[in-house]
Amino acid sequence: MPISHVFDTYAKTSKGKIIHFDVVINEQDQQKALNYAKEWLKSIGEENTTVTSENCYFCHSIEATTELSQQINDQGYAIYKLEGCPK
C-alpha cells in the first residue's frame, strides 16, 4: 500500500466553533493540504472559516485505509473527521 501523509487541521468558524479534522494526501505538501482543507470546508458550507498553515500541519505518515485511499483517488484528498465536523 502507498504511504499517505496526515495533516492535523483545526478551523475556526465565523461563529467561533472549532472544527478538527485530518487532511490525508499522497504528498507531503502543506500548501496542498491547506488548499484541500479550504475546499472541503467550502463543500460543507463553511467557506468563511479560518484555517491557516499554523493550524494545518504535517502530523505523521500512514498506510491509508481502503476508504481513505478511495477518497484520495477520487478527489485528490481524504478527510478524516475528528471533532466538530458534520456527520
Helix/strand layout:
Elements: E1 3-12, E2 18-25, H1 30-43, E3 56-63, H2 66-75, E4 78-83
Antiparallel strand pairs: 1-2, 1-3, 2-4
What does this structure look like?
The protein has 87 residues and is of the alpha+beta class. It has one domain: NE1680-like fold. It has a four-stranded antiparallel beta sheet. Strand 1 and strand 2 form a beta hairpin. It is globular and about 40 Å long. The mean pLDDT is 94.
How would you state the average pLDDT, rounded? 94
Strand content: 35-45%
Write out the CATH superfamily name. Answer: NE1680-like
User: What would you call the shape?
Assistant: globular
Structural class: alpha+beta
Number of helices: 2
The CATH topology is what?
A: NE1680-like fold
Number of strands: 4
Radius of gyration, whole Å? 12 Å
CATH class placement: Alpha Beta
Please provide the ordered H/E string of secondary-structure elements: EEHEHE
In short:
This protein is an alpha+beta fold and 87 residues long. Helices cover 28% and strands 37% of the residues. A 4-stranded antiparallel beta sheet has the order 3-1-2-4.
Descriptors for this entry?
single chain, 87 residues, NE1680-like fold, four-stranded antiparallel sheet
